[in-house]
Specification:
The protein is an all-alpha fold. It has helices at 3-25, 28-43, 45-53, 58-80, 85-105, 113-134, 139-165, 169-187, 200-221.
Length: 224
Amino acid sequence: MTLLNWIFIGLLVIDTALIVVSIIKKIDLMQKICSALFFPIALVHIPMLLVDYLPDSFHSILFSILALSAIAVSFCLYIFFTNKIPALIIFSLGNALWCELFRTIFYIYRMPSWAIIFILCFYIAIIIACHIITGHKSTSEYLIVTITLFFASMLNFIGLFNLICGPCAKSILLFTGSFLNLALTALNFIDEKKFNIKQGMLIRTITLSASQFLISLCNLMLFL
């Protein structure tokens, strides 16, 4: 742990305290700003560790930084702008980058065709269920929901695929992280008022940070 790591840990503690205060005092703007800062502060350690311990893994470092940056930008856009489509498109890009990274560095095991078909049908059912629950009507809304859930489901499928074929700490981390990521993606399309979901922003902040931390940690452990 370098001095810079400890500085970011201190900033994370301060930011967490401010989030708690903003929730108690019901200061929405303060909560939005602190929530937007929480994710990049929490996960800045992963690229730093990759650079420190794996300086020759340019491919992994590049994709990790690009994926985390895209998701951080999408989270900020989601918090501060009413139009969620740009945020969801960039979020999908981040998931696509994670998919490409793990597709290229994971050993792909052979899985029976029936298992692949069953799993794919399960993810298709999730996408259809989200469409039904959210009740979107326009073509653009249907399209963005499908694309976003597709990449989140693909990442979770890669995690599940490797967990079944080669269970180990790394595959457990990837599956758990990608599952939280998929749950967060589905949550983004649910009407919080309709389902009486309180502190949705806090739930998103924690879930997003936890999912990306686990996915990033899996990436780091692959080379240690």
